[in-house]
Specification:
The structure holds two protein chains of two kinds. Chain A is an all-alpha fold. Chain A contains 13 helices and no strands. The two termini of chain A are 40 Å apart. Helices cover 74% and strands 1% of the residues of chain B. The longest helix of chain B has 34 residues. Classes of the chains: A mainly alpha, B mainly alpha. At the A-B interface, helix 1, helix 2, helix 4, helix 6 and helix 7 of A face helix 1, helix 3, helix 4, helix 5 and helix 6 of B.
Amino acid sequence: MNAPLIKLGRAGSFALLLFLPAPILVIAATSFAAAGYLRFPPGELSLRWYLEAATDPRWLSAFATSLVIAAIVAVLATAIAFAGAYACHRLKPRWLPAFELVVMSPLFFPHAALGVALVNVLALTGHLGTVVGIVAAHVVVTLPFAWRPIAVAMARIDGEIVEAASLLGADERRLALGIALPLARSGLVTALLFTFIISFDEVTVTMFLTGPETTTLPVQIYAFIQENASPVLAAISTATVVVTLAVVMLLERLIGLEFFVAHDPA
Amino acid sequence: MQTSATPRSLGWLLLPALLVLALFLGSVVLLFLNAFWTKDGFSLVYFRQIVERPDYHEVFLRTASISVVVALASAVLAYPIAWLLWRLPRWRNLLLVIVLVPWLVSLVVRTYGWLVILGPKGFLNEALAWIGAIQSPLPLIFNDLGVVIGLTHVLMPFAVIATLSVLLQIDTRLEEASESLGASDLATWCRVVLPLSLPGVFTGISITFLTSMGAIVTPILLGGLRQKMAGTQIYQEVVYNFNMSKASAWALCLLLLSGLGLVVLRAVEGALVPKADR
């Protein structure tokens, strides 16, 4: 009927889709160019920018800091969300919708405003420019992203299973860790990997909170772009893309990506 | 589920989450205190500045107009991508990776990519010069155009996800019914699919608008320090001028402006989308 029209629409849409990874692919290509920039025709290939990045202690320490912070944040945010969502699931308080709205509220805060707000509070407690301060801020930022998949998975648990376990004498600890935890594991894994990657790649809020002693990889990339756009940046950036890609592929393998486009049943 | 006795100890499990929320809400309270309490005591000086100085009006106006353009552009450009993923269920997982990875890669990296592409000696200008299309490099960055291109690209994946999640809700029988009643593909899309998917489009617009209002990295790197947005001004006040009161006052005004934008958006959505669909 309208077959040519549909074909044209598909081709156009596909071109738009390829626009999304374009800048990332350009960076990856640059990182392998010996000249340090893209030329026509393309010049010699080399790994010298990767070698330079890997032997610079500033990049190694920022990379390690980012990985450690992301790992701590992922575990903390997921554990906090699991405990909270489990309590809400069991107690079914009347104020639950209001409470979940507060949990989600950092999502509705423009990041520049959230950054200033967190500087205010961390300056008061003396945690500005420390790993503890950045972890605390990242937990605030990532909690909504941990809460949602866990709450969704929790809502799918058959209440009768928990009831049966309870009647058979399982104590509260057993119910939470032996029954709810494994049954909600798809939500837990999604929350862990999702919060890890958000924390690892976060820059807008974090750039308010880093100090001379402690900085994360994305913030250091930002600082170096402003100073001098050396091709080493392309190699470092490609490394962060590889980490992100690896986590997304892991999530795809373990759980699938449907969560991102599934409608919230709650 | 309600077991016979709901132990009160379960309430303790909420404590860690409450602590995190207390940190967040406490920081918002401090934002208010700092904005009104300057080093000379209670003062409205920074709010008065914002109301009185024309250059500050310009910054807020630029922030809002860039954010509106970016939100609309991402909605329009994201829609076909979402449609493609919806129509190709067999390929959806692979295509979803192509959407999600750019979304999750740090925005500083994506912005850097645009610097490499659009810069005076960038990929695009070099390519155009090589084929002889231009004599001198086109000014694609360090202006509003660069900021709009960068922010739109950075925020588009979210609009794709928001739109796709609503498209996936549509009952395929509605489409079949429309086609069996003789509507063309285009008519079916215009009169069935598009109206039903509008709530997702609006979710996408709200989030991209909010994120763009609070953006710092992309405006600084692609717009330069002179093309200020509210976020870049706030960042400068904190990091270079150590003026927390001014930064807090700006943050509150930014919040107010973003909130107003959302209210207007809600009203537009209410006028365009029939109630039953929301």
